[in-house]
Amino acid sequence: MRLVHDRNVLDAFCLDFCRVLERHAKYIIVSGFLAISSGRTRGTEDIDVILERLDEEKFKRLDKDLVKSGFECIQGEKPEFLYRQYLAENLSLRYVRRGHLLPEMEVKLAKDLLDEHQLENRAKLPLTGVDVWFGDVNINIAFKEELLKSEKDLEDARHLRAIFSDQVDEKKINGAKHLIHQWRLKT
What is the mean pLDDT of residues 143-149? Predict the structure, then answer.
């Protein structure tokens, strides 16, 4: 499978998807797309988004609006099934534009206080040129350095540290790393 690297395609996909999200839930874009939209050149096949916790009825309305707007979930068409088998079990859903394989929007619900904190401290980042809500740069760095740790993620973290040097706060990064251990790594 070929990774998507065309910023115009990714930006338009992200903007269109987030316009629908905006009508239904608080959200943040996290991980690789933050690095890509701030100038890092690398491919990706998905954009990660975290939504505030939604009940099944709110999710059904969101899914209906996404379908009406030209998106489809690759795991199925029945929102009740999608909610109960995936989101309620803290598993992600993947949406694409109808008839396309890539890019994908990987949708997750907030799973703990760390995600909720990110949603409360979300920000628009004009440097990216994409008018969507992003998760905190410092928490993104912490996740990439402490939890994900792949070479790609470590390069993303270095890029974010350089590009957003005026926003990098080691105290916040270390605090987030502590919470990652507490909530995700359980150490």
Answer: 96
